[in-house]
Amino acid sequence: MQTLNINQTITAWSSIAENVFVPHTEAEDKHLVNILDALIDQIGEDETHPLASLMEVIGVLIENYENEHIPELF
User: Fold this and answer.
1) Number of helices (H), then strands (E), in the chain
2) Do residues 58 and 23 make contact, with C-beta atoms less than 8 angstroms apart?
3) Residue 58: how many CB atoms within 10 A of its CB?
4) What secondary structure letter does DSSP report for 68?
5) How far apart are CA 26 and CA 33, in angstroms?
6) Alpha carbon distance 32, 46 (integer Å)
7) What is the dihedral of CA 23, 25, 31, 32, to 10 degrees?
8) 68 closest CA partner among 21, 30, 20, 29
9) At what angle do helices 26-43 and 52-69 cross, to 10 degrees?
10) Which of 7, 19, 39, 66 allows an S-S link to 70, with CB 3.0 to 4.6 Å?
11) What is the DSSP letter of 74?
């Protein structure tokens, strides 16, 4: 397994941190939903697309926020 190169990681993270984050507010959640919608439009169901895993990660972040903050309708 490859070891973490922290300087390389800092550079990469700095360029994506405004679009990949754990949402803590409704506005942040909405921002992630907009990003996810754009990714879905671009990627569709192509699981081999280079951004498919990013789409999955953002989906999980949204799901976790909504599970904690949005009550279920019965």
Assistant:
1) 3, 0
2) no
3) 21
4) H
5) 10
6) 20
7) 30
8) 29
9) 150
10) 66
11) -
Q: Cα-Cα-Cα-Cα dihedral of 13, 52, 71, 73, to 10°?
A: 170
Tell the residue number behind the tokens 């190169």, with chain if given. Answer: 5
Task: Record the tokens describing residue 6, joined without a space.
Answer: 């922290």
Q: Check whether 7 has a pLDDT greater than 80.
A: yes
Q: At 63, list the tokens.
A: 């799901």
In the block, residue with structure tokens 């904690």: 68
**Six-digit token pair at 74?**
């019965």
Each residue of 17-58: pLDDT tens digit?
999 999 999 999 999 999 999 999 999 999 999 999 999 999
Nearest to 69 by CA among 39, 19, 29: 29
One-letter amino acid of 66: E
**Structure token pair of residue 68:** 């904690």
